[in-house]
């Protein structure tokens, strides 16, 4: 649906060159929610703006539904942009217009017939749950409500793709959750492909199917959310994942535990979380597993369980037990001193 091939973007500021994007390639499938995560300055905004050509890449190709958008004339580009809605962190609403007019005015400018404007504005106000605030002005709304208006405004153009530029970054956690729920519905019920950028891990975990991790203008890792977040390959990705912090145990305790056995971090995905692996360890290998820490993360459609386990016993028995764990349907990471 969206394909970026070897995109680079260099900004010139006076004599300086800033390479905001360096050879970025990625593909977003129709119907999925694809997220790009990275810290500030990684190049996320520049990347998302290259899709609808708010920013023109210095090099590379941008395909939307197999059309290279860089070769489109002005008229075709306008047409293409109608297929691509966009929402922003700052909402970009017309402050002097009511909620209804914020949705209706752009449709009027686009030449949509009067009856249809009314029908679409009402339909999308209902979908975002703001029918009763149609006559309010943006200054009378909360941040979450403003973002709902912005979403309704984008949807009213009946796009196939929705680009989301840090749409929840200015919102508190509860409001963020509600907006993420709404984006999930928009994706599922209206079949709209969503490409979003964020610096919040929670956003990726809650709603994305696939993710790309960006650092210094490059995509350093990409794949399904489950794969990337349960088997992160790059230090950058690991920094985003708080498991390590969750399982940070005092150095002294870790030292003591390592004297009497091994410490392993186990990650259980979906069905594997139902297997009684720890009971099996104790029974079959004559070792004593004890849980030091644990938790469950909910990814979009899957729960991921994490346990930090101490396995106590004879060295050779412990090693056989760990080998057995590696053969099971769990991810095993040994924790060393
Ligand atoms: N119009 C511009 N002119 C010059 N430099 C720019 C421009 N836009 C972005 N940059 C630079 O490109 C780099 C990437 O910026 P970008 O905004 O894409 O990153 P980001 O990951 O979205 O970060 P943030 O969340 O802070 O916006 C930064 O070094 C930034 O200063």
TrEMBL record:
Originating species: Sporolactobacillus inulinus CASD
Gene Ontology annotations for the cellular component aspect, listed alphabetically: membrane protein complex
Keywords on record: Amino-acid transport, ATP-binding, Cell membrane, Membrane, Nucleotide-binding, Translocase, Transport
Protein name: Methionine ABC transporter ATP-binding protein
Domain of life: Bacteria
GO biological process: amino acid transport
Xref: PANTHER family: AMINO ACID IMPORT ATP-BINDING PROTEIN (PTHR43166), METHIONINE IMPORT ATP-BINDING PROTEIN METN (PTHR43166:SF30)
Keyword Glycoprotein in record: no
ABC transporter domain: residues covered: 2-241
GO MF annotation, one: ATP hydrolysis activity
Coiled-coil features, chain-numbered ranges: none
CDD domains given in the database record: ABC_MetN_methionine_transporter (cd03258)
């Amino acid at each position: 649906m969206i394909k970026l091939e070897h995109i680079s973007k260099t900004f010139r500021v006076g004599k300086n060159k800033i390479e905001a994007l360096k050879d970025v390639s990625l593909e977003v499938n129709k119907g999925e929610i694809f997220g790009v995560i990275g810290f500030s300055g990684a190049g996320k905004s520049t990347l998302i703006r290259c899709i609808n050509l708010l920013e023109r890449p210095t090099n590379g190709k941008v395909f939307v539904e197999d059309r290279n958008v860089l070769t489109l004339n002005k008229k075709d580009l306008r047409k293409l942009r109608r297929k691509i809605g966009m929402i922003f962190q700052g909402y970009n609403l017309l402050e002097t217009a009511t909620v209804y007019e914020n949705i209706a005015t752009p449709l009027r400018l686009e030449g949509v017939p009067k009856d249809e404007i009314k029908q679409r504005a009402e339909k999308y106000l209902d979908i975002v749950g703001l029918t009763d605030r149609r006559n309010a002005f943006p200054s009378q709304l909360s941040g979450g409500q403003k973002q709902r208006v912005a979403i309704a405004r984008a949807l009213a153009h009946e796009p196939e793709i929705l680009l989301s530029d840090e749409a929840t970054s200015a919102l508190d956690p509860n409001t963020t959750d509600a907006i993420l729920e709404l984006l999930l519905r928009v994706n599922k019920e209206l079949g709209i492909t969503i490409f979003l950028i964020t610096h919040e891990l929670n956003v990726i975990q809650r709603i994305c199917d696939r993710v790309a991790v960006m650092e210094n203008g490059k995509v350093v890792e990409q794949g399904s959310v489950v794969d990337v977040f349960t088997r992160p390959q790059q230090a950058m990705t690991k920094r985003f994942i708080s498991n390590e912090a969750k399982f940070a145990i005092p150095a002294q305790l870790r030292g003591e535990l390592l004297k009497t056995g091994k410490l392993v971090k186990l990650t259980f995905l979906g069905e594997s979380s139902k297997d009684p692996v720890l009971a099996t360890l104790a029974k079959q290998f004559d070792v004593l597993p004890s849980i030091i820490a644990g938790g469950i993360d909910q990814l979009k459609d899957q729960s991921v369980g994490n346990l930090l386990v101490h396995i106590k016993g004879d060295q050779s028995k412990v090693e056989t037990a760990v080998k057995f764990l590696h053969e099971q349907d769990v991810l095993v990471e040994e924790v060393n001193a």
